[in-house]
Amino acid sequence: MWAASSVARVAVVRRVAFGELIKVRVALRHPPSWIAIFVKGFAIVAAEIPELRRVYMQLPWPHLYEYAESTVCIALEREILGDIGVLPLRFRKPDAIRLGELSDMIRRAADAPIEDSRFYRILITVTRLPFFLRRLIWIFSLNIPRMRRHALGTCGVSSAARWQTDLGTSRTPHPCLMSYGPADQQGSVAVRLSFDHRVFDGALAGRALSRLDQVLNSSILEELRELARREADTATRADAGDRSPLGLYHVADDRSETYGPAKPDTSRGRPGRSAN
Which of 131, 137, 138, 176 has minimal CB crowding within 10 Å? Predict the structure, then answer.
């Protein structure tokens, strides 16, 4: 809270129509998570709008620093030493990662034991230090660009939509934090951008959310459709197969070929599941 106490926090909200995107995603057998969809969408917008990659630093004098690329920080609830807390997941240049791969990366990182992460071990160690040492570390982390990106990223994404709730204006040391709520019956979602008014103004925040609306319903939607086409092609090849005249089935991929006695296909597709 101390790190966010000096931030001039303002928020803008835009309702985004997700009807078609929800329809395509639900039909997928292995749909990407909603957090991955928003992280990539916002990273694409940040790559186009440099103000979303800027931070306000107080030392050695008050100034704005602009990063060349985005590092998105996801606020994740985890159990820490028997208690519940929030830990950051950081992903550098998520706009350059395929959506399915990004979703898998987020799920693996969220499920990994805290003890396996050197970064988390350092965070827990810092929280046990005396107050003045913790404050000194925070001062350095907030005002040295490389340390700040490593600790906080360049922007944040958070949501409580899975519990059918919407985050209000959040106090955070991030220069901008994007959050989203649950979808209504028409497939409309409230997307909120909380930002540091010292870095940019409400007009730019509004343009950023407008551009995010376009990205989610164009390039992200098309990537979901491409995933649907790949799943359909995979299912078609699995159902049909390449059967030889000798009654052998033939399955080939980029790595190996497997031959064996012909046998019926008993696989079933699982219905798409919705995950926030």
Answer: 131
How many residues are present in the chain?
276
Predicted confidence (pLDDT) at residue 262 exceeds the cutoff of 60: no
Please give the single-letter amino acid code of residue 62: P
- Compute the 3-state secondary structure of the chain and give helix, strand, coil in percent, each to the nearest 5: 45, 25, 30
Domains of the chain: which residue ranges? 9-261
Reported CATH class of domain 9-261: alpha beta
Cα angle 59-140-70, degrees, rounded to a multiple of 5: 85
The pLDDT tens digits for 80-116 are: 878 888 888 999 999 999 999 999 999 999 899 988 8
Task: Please indicate whether residue 260 or residue 169 has the higher confidence score (pLDDT).
Answer: 169
In this structure, the number of other CB atoms found within 10 A of the CB of residue 260 comes to 9
Is 15 exposed, middle or buried, given 0-12, 13-18 or 19+ CB atoms closer than 10 A? middle
